[in-house]
Amino acid sequence: MKAEDIRPSHLSSYDPQYDPLVAPNPGHGAGYAPTYWVGTAGRPPDDDGPVCGDMEADVVIVGSGFTGLSTALFLAREHGIRAVVLEANQTAWGCTSRNGGQGQNASGRLYRSQWIERWGKDVALKLDAEIREGFDTFKKLVSEFPECEPQPGGHLYIAHRDRKMEFLRNETRVMRDVFGYDARVLSIDEVKRNYVDDADCRGAMHEPDGIGVHPLKLAFGYLRKARELGVKVHPASPVIGMETRNGMHYLKTPGGIVKARAVGFATGGYTSNQLHPQLRSKIMPILSNSLVTRPLTEEELDATNFKTTQVITDTRTLRFYYRKLPDNRVQIGSRSSITGADAPNPVHMAKLVEGLHHKFPALKGIQVDYSWWGWVDVSHDMMPRVTQPDPKESIFYAVGYGGNGVSFSAHAGRRMAQRIAGQTLKEFELPIYNSQLEYPNAFNMVRSEAFAPFRRMGQRFLYHWYHFNDEKN
Length: 473
Description:
The chain is α+β, with helices and mostly antiparallel strands. Helices cover 30% and strands 22% of the residues. One of its GO terms (molecular function) is oxidoreductase activity. This is FAD-binding oxidoreductase.
């Protein structure tokens, strides 16, 4: 089934050049990107149609991806609050239908050793307990929706150069000795014999926690359950203006104004600078490319020794993430262009195909059945925030997962629901909860919104530097 086959009549065409740093909003009823997940998820569940006329709501959630739907689900299930979800396009249109489906015991871009460097051991241990609880939240939701085709077993972190093995040995020591995980260092032979014959591999770290999922089927499960509990989900209803008067929020959509007591933003990498002042210039959207091959033949499975279905990443800064899907296809993704305007340039997908062939020479020339790209929400300090930026306003946001949102978004939604419901928990003293997203910085010294217009110049330079460092021996 193709994306256009499941597009309701009120939806417009998919825009492959959409760019959150340029466009005022993600669109109005835009169709899905042509992802494998869209092509295999089946027809979307029923929703409540676009906003048609003014309405009131106790709580409005902006964005209907993993975070928005899980927030609405937990608000209804644990607090008896039936939220209204406003979606610019269609359910799970953004990050949730474009990722690699990798659920890991992580959030943000920092390793646990970096948590210790930044905050000290005591805070790092508390943060680890919270992220670990977050992965449990994700696992419980996955178990509720087995149609999402879960592939458990752990996470394989492959060293792509010999010099990266010392880094993995150190991270393994930290994981085991400080945080109590059964992480293990694997030799080249162990990886190639028991997991996969990745030509890049120089050894690996194996983490026990990791689950691959069909992300859109999981999101559709969230949607069905939330609506059963009384949540209203309105697609093709972008927020095109918002003001707050006397403690009430007025969200303008093309179909009418929605008045709400509280608002939660869950817009991920599709957060426009015009959405709300508290989010302006606080997220750096980064493009990621992904592809899915045709199903591998038995001969190709033997040649690649692709025995594992666990989620895999490598140690490049511009890392590859990949896995074997339940139907024996290979999914692989990595970073893409700098701007949305350049995203359709075939050179970016060609680099991803080249990466696939380099890792698995036996797959050179294999047919690619699906290819797409999407925006990742990276915070400027590399860690997420689930917070209430101004205690005087009932406005909240959960964003900034840095590519680890498949799993942590479930817990972020639960925590944002608790904050909206007025709960005060000791966990909210952690840095990802008790501070706002930060502005970009210069030389790790000064943070200011004034640096925002120059971020992509820096990104372009860093991509060249990262590629040079990643590929040298």
